[in-house]
Amino acid sequence: MTERKLSRRGFIKVGAAAGGGALLAGAGLHEAVGHAATTSGLPSFEGPHQAMVLAETTQATALVSFDVVAGSRRELQDLLRTLTARMRLLYRGGLPQNDGPASPLDDNGILGPSLPAQQVAFVLGLGASLFDGRYGLASLKPARLSEMVSFPNDNLDPARTGGDLSLQVCAADADTVIHAVRDITKHTRGAMQPRWRIDGFKSPPRPAGTPRNLLGFKDGIANPDVSDADAMRRLVWVQRGSSEPEWTAGGTYQVVRVIRMLVEFWDRVSIGEQENMIGRRRATGAPLDANSEFAAPDYANDPHGDRIPLDAHIRLANPRTAATGENLILRRGYNYDRGVDANGNLDQGLIFTCYQQDLERQFMVTQRRLIGEPLVDYVSPVGGGYFFCPRGVQGATDYLARGLFA
Amino acid sequence: MSGSFRARGWWPAAGAVVVAAAAIGGVAFAATRGGSAPAHRILVTDTACAPHWAAPRSGRTVFTVENTSKVTTYNIDLASSNHVSVYGQIEGLDPGTSDTMDVVLPPGAYTFECGAFGGGTLDSDIARVSGPRVAAARSFQPVTPAQMRQVTFTYRLSLQPWLRKLAQDTDALTAAVKAGRLTAARSLWLTAHLDYSRLGAAYDTFGPYNDLIDGRPLGLPGGVRDPGFHGFLRLESGLWHGQPQTELASVAVALDRSVHGLVHAFPRLTMPDGDVPLRTHEILENTLQFELTGETDEGSHTNLATAWANVQGTNLALAAVSEILGSSSPGLVQRVQTGLTHLGEELKAYERPDGAWVPLQSLPRAQRERLDAATSGLLEQLELVPDRLEIQATLSTNGRETDD
Question: Which of chain B's residues have a Cβ under 8 Å away from the Cβ of A313?
């Protein structure tokens, strides 16, 4: 019944045909081509972790939230297999599959007849709603995962908030991102439905250093060092033996907040006010008490906020005390720009994205410190979600979130 | 009603021309001087403000100002030698840091003023800038703390009668709700809410009272039915969505209590100096963001009325600053007053003879665009008010100003 309503390429049919490793073989790209060496290959999700979590942001991204409509636990399992398979193929590149002359071409053609290798990367996350009663996963829900919390200044639109799955697609070019989004939605049709989506971009360094956000300030300067494996173990990856379900080890919590910036208003505010709200110089990114963007602000010697106001954004977000070291988050934000609002004001801002080992200890604690900061008058968080990104895949038959079905 | 629209001046035009001219001047300057930074390095130390500074030629100059003190944060102004007009400003230059100061100087005599956080101002030697005449002098005249205290006093005094009216009208509203006269209550609600909207409660002016009186249900898990949602908008939601009188009476009583609490507390609520100029700008920022989008509408569809009251509230703030602003920027005061009058008239045209207002949602696109354009254009002028009325930073002894 259900199957008859789906197209020939409907998810269920593909998923059923898969029945294990068959899908991979059937949908495989032609291997002979597509190994054009790339000097700037993006990381894969094969390995202990989804590596794009730590990798440097790309120029273009799409963040798509999906609701799963698969009819059973088995179909959900097939969906995750298919998702993993498509992500593998898109990452590997090469000639798209050939379904013969009696079918529309499998590939959408946006990237030409052969796909470039290692030019697209993904991060997949699972929302709290996936762990409701539908798929019998309630007992496996990551301990800290919840629906997105509304903070006092938030103006969350339910249509742009939450979702069962998050898929972030990252690439150097917008067409590569769109190609992957189209490919993945096509091959998962019938099993999940896009709920909301937002596209982002990274600005080039202006003139150097950390890229700027659309308030004109360098953003993301003080991030944990991703090359410090110990720091990543403490701050990003869920460890075995914690209070978390076993399958979550090697994964990480993803927070997405779509933060609109009220840029017309912001642009009508004096530079002195702006810099006091942020705590950095706009021109250089330097903390107000230093000359270089990478200098650490010295709060210990500024207890009354004479140099950097006590309610400056950088000071509330990261007070840099021994006690707040465990609250640090790994930020991976992108700028967005998507048209105009009902007043003709520009709808642009930040896709704030961060990763952490413990949603409560890190993001929630940090965000609570920011309640009521002066900057809230100039920003309006309108959507997003909390997700759990499972560990990477290891081996040809592995797939993302397989631990849920062990 | 809509036939009353007139063509509006396109506000930014005049300013844009000035900026363009200055930018061209700057390009020419950079080309001839190659941005020779060392010549324009200004030092500030614990004991000296810009010692031995050399005046540049007239036109645009970018100084690099370096604070070599170990302990003192300075506000730094470049002013005319009589200390009246300020041509460049760095707020809060911390010890051991440097920043740029981008100025356009006509020929004349100038001095740097270095105001130390914690008190005391050092002045530099006077140096003479010579060279060709500069078309647009880019300076402002900071106001003294005493002048600003007078502004705050005048403004607060002007709010008193409106606060009393608010209390009376909220009493009448509460009585109607308690008596179950809900049709009358809807009309009285609008009267009282406009009283409050006229007070210009933008951005925490009334501290915690604003949340109790005019707060929104943002961040509340139960939304409009959350027990933490109070005030006019809570009552609006109930009155316009058929909530029974028995449930609304307590909401109205609580609102009335909060209003009287505000009226009672008002004489003791402090208002930072410099707040009135900020309110002059920011009340209408709120209008654009929350009223002209319909975002705060809880069912009464009276956002246009609220916007009109906000214009009146802006007028109250402007009246308090217009005398000192008029002495330095007469053109700005006139443009803003004209713009407020026009915007107020446009909005008032949407009031029906029976006192009800045309819903924002029913306006044709062209009319909404005209309102948005008028408001946005006016805001591009109003933004100048707080900048032009900055309190003399070099005399400040209270550290940084903050917005909240």
Answer: none
